[in-house]
Amino acid sequence: MRGWRSIGAALILAGVCLGAGAALAQEVADRRPGVPPRPLPDGPVVLDSAEYGQIRVVALTRRLERPWSLAFLPDGSMLVTERPGRLRRITGGSLDPAPIAGTPAVHAEGIAGLMDVALHPDFAANGLVYLTYSKPRPAGPTVALARGRLAGGALDGLEDLLVLDPPGSGASRIGFGPDGMLYMTVGGAFESSPENALRAQDPNDLLGKVLRLRDDGTPPGDNPFVGLPEHRPEVYSLGHRNHQGLAFRPGSGELWVSEHAPQGGDEVNVIAAGRNYGWPVVSYSRQYSGQRMTEAPWRPGMELPAVLWVPSIAPSGLAFYDGERFPDWKGNLFAGSLRFGGLPRTGHLERIVLNEAGDELRREWLLAELRQRIRDVRQGPDGLLYVLTDADDGALLRIEPVAGDVAGSGGG
Amino acid sequence: MRGWRSIGAALILAGVCLGAGAALAQEVADRRPGVPPRPLPDGPVVLDSAEYGQIRVVALTRRLERPWSLAFLPDGSMLVTERPGRLRRITGGSLDPAPIAGTPAVHAEGIAGLMDVALHPDFAANGLVYLTYSKPRPAGPTVALARGRLAGGALDGLEDLLVLDPPGSGASRIGFGPDGMLYMTVGGAFESSPENALRAQDPNDLLGKVLRLRDDGTPPGDNPFVGLPEHRPEVYSLGHRNHQGLAFRPGSGELWVSEHAPQGGDEVNVIAAGRNYGWPVVSYSRQYSGQRMTEAPWRPGMELPAVLWVPSIAPSGLAFYDGERFPDWKGNLFAGSLRFGGLPRTGHLERIVLNEAGDELRREWLLAELRQRIRDVRQGPDGLLYVLTDADDGALLRIEPVAGDVAGSGGG
Fold first, then answer.
1. Contact A34 B50 (CB under 8 A)
2. Is B310 in Cβ contact with A365 (below 8 Å)?
3. Are A300 and A343 in contact (CB under 8 A)?
4. Residue of chain B whose alpha carbon sits nearest to that of A25
5. What is the Cα A307 distance to its own chain's centre?
């Protein structure tokens, strides 16, 4: 009997109630009265920052439908995914009216749809674009990774590199690491049933894992579980619930990944080969009914999060800042937040100050006054920060220093 | 050898660095650039609440110097402590110019001074008022509990009921429980030295404890450690760092106590007789240098917090709401916040929604827009909420529903 099965049995015997009604409870929770998101102001907004003085927030476009992720192209333009299934291009701050052709058909419902976009490290030479999405199939949708070649406003030769089976319906982020490998998160180990949550502990299942792949989607030979029976060779780390953000830390090259807990206990983990991040065996979180998700928040052998949120902020995209336009923010981690505290209200952009070892020192909330749901955050090649808001009329925001061009690095 | 000593030795051997320079690090941290508190607006302010629509905040007075706590008198007036050592009376919303005479001399420096004030359950008959304060002594200041009789604008016959020895310099809250006993928190088990922090684990030392006392300051015979060698009979629970708030939950009568961790890991605990709340053996917090305070955030046998904050909000006073003016807030826990996230900025009033069992469901930030440090929060006899801001020109704020008198309970 495999280890995770006995853990699972112990969990169930211990009466850890992995609430079958959790999804329903969440639905009910979302119908509570709340403070709705505010319309964005028309012009630029100037806001205070504790360690930068003032920042200016400019909306470059407000016509993106549920934008999910973005990627900067070598020519200074950018690609943006829209969850309903479109890939858009923004050139010189202006949204091209026609979506890029050749993208996959997606299952767009709830949190599912077109998700992440990433460029091949040699994109300038080979034009390869990677997408994660929820793939419609007769047997039901599942998470997939696809690749195509961007040429003349279309993706050519799109092909699936990986299709999750058994299927799953969580979020998926991708990014190429300093080692040239493609890291892919496969979330969706929700507590809708104990069996589904426990898939995160099964090394023979890709759900609830971080995967490490070659650029063609196949597992490299130096992955931690290669050659072990009943272990998928793509698996790099296990014990995740639903990842939402992914970034590599400048300098160390470490992979940092954010994930959602049900209620309290959202995390950012520093991902190491073969490690177990605990879900659903240990968690700081609570079910939507208030009951603790697990009896113990931690046990030896499980990794501690680098960043923990109690209460939840529903973290989304992650980015490390290493530009010149905000010198006081160098080395800081930025995390988008969809909503705070379990209330059906809005989120913010969280700035997390780390020491050289990557330990947390302090945090600041930015953009909270705008009352938006923040879906992603990235540093642009111009050293400014770019933020996507999650709405039917979603915006691409740019954050600039008010003091002007501090380091003369150009851009904009 | 006593248990806590071997735990302590293990801790030290395990290399858990209880940073000797933590106090200094905090001082340095407080000199970082930040967003300063804002002056309060002149008139009432209307703010949004996720579950009440709008609330109105009215400043009744702005002339309190570092107010710390308040108590409502049967005649509708209230007593407010000022940390520099004055006890003030507010009648009909107006501050009496002369402080109440007969209060103790206090050691007022940094966080020390006059702290909590509580009335005897039979105050209407006996006029007894209880105070906690930092008592100046030739050998150095220490926390003390005093009692006097309020008569004609003065405290008569003030006497110390308990003086902490060995001395300590943390915060101290008091409150009479449904059992008629006086519960007193004695904080100050800071990590300035491992020895000082470990006092919280020593049942023969009152520092870092919750005490349970008769109304004359003596321990009742049914306290959990009465009769045990090397256990102080006043001790009710152990393993606390620095408590800042105290409230009894309506219905259950449970004692809920908030406490500060160094950085991340602030807690509210539900206090049960004889239990160990873990400090400094287990903690979710980090040192000001970023290093984790302990290797494990929890171990079996230590109590889990009912409410956890990561990042820190520096929680202060606590109150349960059970009035009629905010029907949607019934049963909610309110916690003041002095500052958020480790930054030298301001706090808010946190509303925590609990289910009937007392499990957390969700949270909301109130008053954050005012950019104040919140020191205490109480429900008035009129069903409105009263809040003290921590400033040299501290204010007493009243929170009212905008919709008017919802339940016709009068007041104001």
1. yes
2. no
3. no
4. B361
5. 15
Q: How far does A334 lie from chain B, in Å, by closest CA? A: 14
Looking at the complex, report in whole angstroms how far the Cα of residue A308 sits from the nearest Cα belonging to chain B.
6
Integer Cα distance of A225 and A94 in angstroms: 46
Q: How far is CA B40 from the centre of its chain?
A: 23
Cβ pair A359:B309 closer than 8 A: no
Q: Which chain A residues have a beta carbon less than 8 Å from that of B32?
A: 50-51
Q: Which helix (H) or strand (E) holds B195?
A: helix B194-198
| ipTM for the whole complex | 0.88
Q: For residues B305, B311, B314 and B319, what is the CA-based torsion angle, rounded to 10 degrees?
A: -50
Q: Global pTM?
A: 0.90
Q: Can you tell me the distance from the alpha carbon of A354 to that of A142, in angstroms, rounded to the nearest whole number?
A: 36
The answer to whether A190 and A23 have CB atoms below 8 angstroms apart is yes
- Decide if A311 and B48 are in contact by the 8 Å CB cutoff: no
Name every residue whose Cβ is closer than 8 Å to that of residue A50 and which is 6 or more positions away in sequence: A364, B32, B33, B34, B35, B343, B344, B345
Which of B310, B333, B355 is the mutation pick for testing A, counting most A CBs within 10 A? B310
Between CA A327 and CA A336, with CA A331 as vertex, the angle to 5 degrees is 100
Which of B360, B367, B369 to mutate to test binding with chain A, by most A CBs within 10 Å of its CB? B360
Q: Which helix (H) or strand (E) holds A7?
A: helix A3-13
Structure tokens at B62: 């702005």
- Report CA-CA distances (Å) from A320 to A8, A176, A265, A287: 36, 15, 21, 31
What span, in angstroms and rounded, lies between the C-alpha atoms of A258 and A238? 14
Q: Which residue in A134, A98, A90 sits closest to A116, CA to CA? A: A134
Q: List the structure tokens of A154.
A: 């279309």
The token pair that represents A159 in the structure block: 């092909």
Assess contact for A346 and A287: CB atoms under 8 A. no
Nearest alpha-carbon partner for A339 in A318, A314, A363? A314
Identity of the residue in A53, A308, A342 whose CB atom sits nearest the CB atom of B363:
A342
Judged by CB atoms closer than 8 Å, whether chains meet at B360 and A286 is answered as yes
DSSP code for A109: B
Q: How far is B288 from chain A (nearest CA, A)?
A: 7
Positive/negative CA dihedral, B95, B99, B104, B108: positive
Chain B, nearest residue to A300 by Cα: B296
Residue of B nearest to A354 (CA): B290
Across the interface, whether the CB atoms of B359 and A286 are under 8 A apart is answered yes
Nearest to A50 among B35, B288, B308 (CB): B35
> In the 8-state DSSP scheme, what is residue A140?
-
From the centroid of its chain, how far is CA B138?
27
Q: What is the pLDDT along chain B (412 residues), one digit of tens a residue?
A: 334 444 443 343 333 333 333 333 443 344 444 556 788 988 899 998 888 789 999 999 999 999 999 999 999 999 999 999 999 999 998 999 999 999 999 999 988 999 999 999 999 999 999 999 999 999 999 999 999 999 989 999 999 999 999 999 999 999 999 999 999 999 999 999 999 999 999 999 999 999 999 999 999 999 999 999 999 999 999 999 999 999 999 999 999 999 999 999 999 999 999 999 999 999 999 998 999 999 899 999 999 999 999 999 999 999 999 999 999 999 999 999 999 987 768 999 999 999 999 999 999 999 998 999 999 999 999 999 999 999 999 999 999 999 754 443 333 3
Q: How many residue pairs from chains A and B have C-beta atoms closer than 8 A?
A: 121
- Taking phi over 0 as left and psi of -120 to 50 as alpha, with beta for the rest, B227 belongs to left
Q: Search chain B and give the residue with CA nearest A308.
A: B310
Contact B361 A34 (CB under 8 A): no
